[in-house]
Design brief:
By secondary structure, the protein is an alpha+beta fold. The chain has 10 helices and 13 strands. Helix 2 runs antiparallel to helix 3.
Length: about 375
């Protein structure tokens, strides 16, 4: 009996020891599927400067050269940060700052005018690793709204601040403030007068039951700058900044500061920055829709951007475009308008710049 009991205890002990040897430690990392792996030290950056009826026949050689020069300066500045190991968030702010400081683009210095002849700017930034986001709307004295959006993301418990409250927060954070007159540019002010005149003519023609074509009113709805980037740590981010719509009224806010509409980033899918007729981007939640297509329908970045911009946005009556990047460095610059100011650089330093819908892009080694 004692011998039988001893053998039973030895058998149980042996079995327990085997189970312990075969058990995986709870802190042992789980190997991810091959499909989730991304190339280490890969990086890339894409920027846009707005979309709309941008036709070569309406562009002088000198103006085209000026646009391309700023686009190249902005994308190279962000690329340099990434090449030196900086984060996607840092690169985005630097690239957008350059476009905000240029009167050529509808953001910062070149912001369009409201119906009340003021400048009200919106901006947003989002980190694809943490899903943290910051946005501001209707600011009038902040030199670089994208920097304020970053401060909201990092140093406030909120996502979106607007108007006087956002400006008060900017003062507390020590951001560079300017007089509203800083944002005045003659061509933007002239555009406002043209839109107002077009509205008046349209109203008069309606009273007289005559046809009227309103190109100025249509084009007043376009213009934004944005950037998406992938850094060497495998993190992606998106940022967008805009002066909004020419002749906007009642403190109108567009899609840019609405996370998921004009700006979105998620490491699981992609980072997106949009430009175009904001009301349609909000209704279609365009930036997030692209991400959702990738997540739920397992589409590639190219497939998702084409489906949303060329099909869904177009069918709804919306016009504009997006730039996007995923964790593998794949990029998209998709638009359904006549043109979109855009540029991109990859890990190899290959530069691409485009303005028109036609394939008139240049590529070169850095």
């Amino acid at each position: 009996m004692k011998k039988t009991l001893l053998l039973l205890l030895l058998s149980i002990s042996f079995a327990c020891n085997n189970a312990y040897e075969e058990r995986k430690p709870i802190d042992q990392p789980v190997t991810k599927p091959k499909s989730d792996k991304v190339e280490t030290n890969n990086f890339g950056i894409v920027i846009h400067g707005g979309a709309g009826t941008i036709l070569k026949e309406n562009m002088t050689d000198s103006l085209e050269t000026a646009y391309k020069a700023v686009l190249e300066e902005a994308v190279r500045a962000g690329h340099e940060i990434l090449a030196n190991g900086g984060t996607s968030i840092e690169a985005i702010q630097r690239s957008i700052n350059i476009m905000e400081d240029s009167p050529l683009f509808n953001a910062g210095k070149g912001a369009v005018f409201t119906n009340q002849e003021t400048n009200e700017m919106d901006a947003a930034i989002m980190d694809g690793e943490t899903l943290k986001a910051g946005a501001v709307a209707g600011v009038t004295i902040v030199k670089n709204p994208i920097n304020l959006a970053f401060q909201v993301m990092e140093y406030s418990p909120h996502v979106l601040l607007a108007g006087k409250g956002a400006e008060e927060f900017a003062k507390e954070r020590g951001l560079e403030l300017v007089e509203p007159s800083y944002f005045y540019t003659e061509n933007r002010f002239k555009s406002l007068q043209e839109v107002k005149e077009a509205e008046k003519m349209k109203a008069d023609s309606a009273d007289n039951r005559t046809a009227f074509y309103d190109p100025y009113i249509k084009e007043s709805k376009f213009g934004t700058v944005g950037c998406v980037a992938l850094d060497k740590n495998g993190n992606i981010a998106a940022g967008t900044s805009t002066g909004g719509m020419t002749n906007k009224k009642w403190n109108r806010i567009g899609d840019v500061p609405i996370i998921g509409a004009g700006t979105y980033a998620n490491n699981a899918t992609c980072a997106v920055s949009g430009t175009g007729w904001g009301e349609y981007f909000m209704r279609g939640v365009v930036a997030y829709d692209i991400s959702a297509m990738m997540e739920y329908k397992k589409m590639s970045l190219e497939e998702a951007t084409k489906e949303v911009i060329q099909n869904k946005l177009t069918e709804s009556g919306g016009e504009g475009g997006i730039i996007a990047i995923d964790r593998r460095g794949n990029i998209a610059m998709e638009f359904n308008s006549a043109g979109m100011y855009r540029a991109a650089m990859n890990k190899k330093g290959e530069l691409t710049i485009g303005i028109y819908k036609e394939n008139e892009e240049t590529a070169e080694e850095k």
